[in-house]
Amino acid sequence: MLPLPAWDCLPYDRISPHADIVSARIVALSQLQKPITKPCIVLTTINALVQKMLPPDILSQARLDAAVGDILPVEKLRSFLIANGYVGAGSVREAGEFAVRGGIVDLFPPGYEAPIRLDFFGDEIESIRIFDALTQTTTNQVTSFYLGPISEVLLDERSIANFRSGYRELFGAVTANDPLYESITAGRKFPGAEHWLGLFYPRLYSLFDYLPQTAVTFDYQAEEAIKSRLQQIDDFYQARLSLYQATKRARHNDHAAVYKPVLPAKLYLDHAALDKALTDRAVATFSPFALPEGSALDAGARRGRDFSDVRTKPEADLYGAIQAYASEQQSNNKRVAVACYSQGSADRISSLLRAHGMSALSAAKSWEDLRKLDPKLIVFVILGFEHGFLAQDLALIAEQDILGDRLVRPLRKRRAAAQFQLELGTLNPGDYVVHAEHGIGRYEGLETIHV
């Protein structure tokens, strides 16, 4: 499974997508450039599908591989990081950040779960360590690493020249105070520059270009989602365009901050492009509804049992009904599994079932583990299903089928704790602090207490 997320910002926005989102996208696109030797499912959304992406050759060129013992001047590494969207920071904590301290370089590349620390002896890489972003302590050592871009806007000489000529062609002579144009010309990343992505490269590619002749499957509501997304793109473009044109007509001298939108075709696929991309490949649509024979392939899945009819009757035996249902499905040669939202939910429900006489229970971390267990066991798995289903050899019961709709409670204490940890995350062991009641002290670290 290879997830490919969409940007977490609106079309023609003034902000850039989050670094974690961009990192996940670049990792996915990099994987798609390699030969696929085993079955792989690319899981994406309609928003990501209609959005154009980096050219594959640009992505290949923006990669750096190194190992212990290699010669890599620190200044050359710094230039590579800046050109590929990395941001300098005092302490590296998030993807896309780097810090240079003499012969030590900390950086957080895309595709890594934790940052890495490079120790240099002159221009030679002496060691490569993975470290914890919060405690800044080493957790592992590796012998090599790779770097990919952390931004889809790569500010090298060629891309900057492409942007400058394309920008002037679309919007005419540039005024003396255009922060976007000035920033890109100087080689500095500008917030939201990704929304002019089509100006940086001669051509943008779609996911279909990365996966030629690959079969495509859609959710049954995909067509409505495509129409809605394309309409949203057009609405935002027209709103930006009308404001820009109104400002030009008013002949304001200080209209540099007005958004100058590029054509949707520069950034997104339209209906015609989607239809053309889908013409020469196998396309299927999943549907929860029964369709006329001959027009669809029935995979055999059905909505599972919902125990709401039992839950609403005070005198009814809910757990007896669950046991009877599980026994019935097992007699039909189906495995029975219970999908829970969290490990806490699984522990709670399994204890309730055991208290009502159901002892043949087990747990699995994955579908593969589930298949290896005795079919006579009821297996608990952590999956976010709202409702269960019946398949050819599996009967899945969801947590909501047993307990009803989930209750969403305010997480005031958890939010406060998260904010507390976030503030402590800005400190390094040995830093001096001022306590509101106790005065000056020295921060020694954060200890997790299990209770």
**Could you give a short account of the major beta sheet?**
6 strands, mixed
* Helix coverage percent: 25-40%
User: End-to-end distance, in Å?
Assistant: 36 Å
Number of separate strands: 20
Identify low-pLDDT runs.
407-414
- Mean pLDDT across all residues, rounded? 85
Structural class: alpha/beta
Radius of gyration: 27 Å
| Share of residues in strands | 15-25%
Give the helix tally.
15
Strand order of the largest sheet: 4-5-6-7-8-9
The gross shape turns out to be: globular
Description:
- This protein is α/β, with parallel strands linked by helices.
- It is built from 15 helices and 20 strands.
- The chain has helices at residues 19-33, 46-49, 56-61, 74-83, 157-171, 179-185, 207-210, 222-250, 271-279, 308-311, 318-331, 343-355, 367-372, 399-403, 412-424; strands spanning 2-4, 42-44, 64-67, 87-88, 97-101, 104-107, 116-121, 124-131, 138-142, 144-147, 216-218, 283-285, 302-303, 335-340, 361-363, 378-382, 389-390, 394-398, 432-435, 439-442.
- The strands form six sheets. Strands 4-5-6-7-8-9 form a six-stranded mixed β-sheet, covered by helices on one side.
- Helix 13 links the parallel strand 15 (361-363) and strand 16 (378-382).
- The chain starts with a strand and ends in a 9-residue tail after the last strand.
Summarize this structure as a short list of keywords or feature phrases:
6-stranded mixed β-sheet, alpha/beta, 34% helix, 15 helices, 451 residues
In short:
With 451 residues, the protein is α/β, with parallel strands linked by helices. It has helices at residues 19-33, 46-49, 56-61, 74-83, 157-171, 179-185, 207-210, 222-250, 271-279, 308-311, 318-331, 343-355, 367-372, 399-403, 412-424; strands at 2-4, 42-44, 64-67, 87-88, 97-101, 104-107, 116-121, 124-131, 138-142, 144-147, 216-218, 283-285, 302-303, 335-340, 361-363, 378-382, 389-390, 394-398, 432-435, 439-442. Strand 19 and strand 20 (439-442) form a beta hairpin.
